[in-house]
């Protein structure tokens, strides 16, 4: 979701709460915003805990990871799919390898997936 949409919804909730219920409505809307932010932080911490427990740059199956990737994916979604942090190759380039030697090389631009390629153990792309 576009961050500006979230900011707009939060402001609309604050204004609507203030108009309809006064200061209690503003507090109610603020409580809802804080709860939503806590849910997002909790999701991020759960993903990072799982990724931190796995070896760096490892994935169960590189071919399956490759099939689930699509342009524009956020880094957090990519890490949750892979189950680990990627091994950094170059700035904004990361690699995940499986036990069979296959690998997925990912290039990010501004934190979003721009391009990727499957590197087979036999040398085929």
Structure overview:
The chain crosses the membrane at residues 6-39. This is Glycerate kinase. The protein is an alpha+beta fold and 125 residues long. The chain has two domains: 3-52, no CATH class; 55-119, Roll (Nuclear Transport Factor 2, Chain: A), CATH 3.10.450.730. It is built from four helices and four strands. The chain has helices at residues 3-21, 23-53, 62-68, 75-82; strands at residues 87-90, 93-97, 103-109, 112-119. A four-stranded antiparallel sheet has the order 1-2-3-4, with helices on one face. Strand 2 (93-97) and strand 3 form a beta hairpin. Helix 1 (3-21) runs antiparallel to helix 2 (23-53) and helix 2 packs across helix 4 (75-82). The longest helix has 31 residues, at 23-53. The mean pLDDT is 92.
Q: Would you spell out the secondary-structure blueprint of this structure?
A:
Elements: H1 3-21, H2 23-53, H3 62-68, H4 75-82, E1 87-90, E2 93-97, E3 103-109, E4 112-119
Antiparallel strand pairs: 1-2, 2-3, 3-4
Helix pairs in contact: 1-2, 2-4
Organism: Roseateles saccharophilus
Transmembrane segments: 6-39
Protein name: Glycerate kinase
Strand order of the largest sheet: 1-2-3-4
H/E element sequence: HHHHEEEE
Structural class: alpha+beta
Strand content: 15-25%
Number of domains: 2
Low-confidence stretches: none
CATH topology of the largest domain: Nuclear Transport Factor 2, Chain: A
* Annotated CATH homologous superfamily of the largest domain: BLIP domain
Helix content: 40-55%
Question: How is the main sheet built?
Answer: 4 strands, antiparallel
What gross morphology would you assign?
elongated
User: What is the level-2 CATH architecture name of the largest domain?
Assistant: Roll
How confident overall, as mean pLDDT? 92
The top-level CATH class of the largest domain is: Alpha Beta
Count of individual helical segments: 4
According to DSSP, the number of beta strands is: 4
Distance between the termini: 33 Å
Rounded to the nearest angstrom, the radius of gyration is 20 Å
Protein name: Glycerate kinase
Transmembrane segments: 6-39
Keywords: Membrane, Transmembrane, Transmembrane helix
């Amino acid at each position: 979701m576009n961050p500006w949409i979230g900011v707009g919804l939060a402001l609309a909730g604050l204004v609507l709460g203030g108009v309809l219920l006064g200061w209690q409505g503003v507090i109610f809307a603020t409580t809802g915003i804080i709860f939503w932010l806590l849910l997002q932080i909790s999701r991020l911490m759960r993903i990072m805990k799982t990724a931190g427990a796995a070896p760096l740059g490892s994935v169960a199956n590189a071919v399956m990871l490759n099939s689930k990737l699509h342009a524009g994916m956020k880094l957090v979604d990519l890490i949750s799919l892979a189950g680990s942090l990627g091994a950094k190759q170059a700035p904004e380039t990361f690699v995940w390898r499986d036990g069979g030697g296959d690998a997925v090389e990912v290039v990010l631009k501004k934190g979003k997936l721009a391009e990727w390629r499957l590197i087979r153990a036999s040398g085929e792309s």
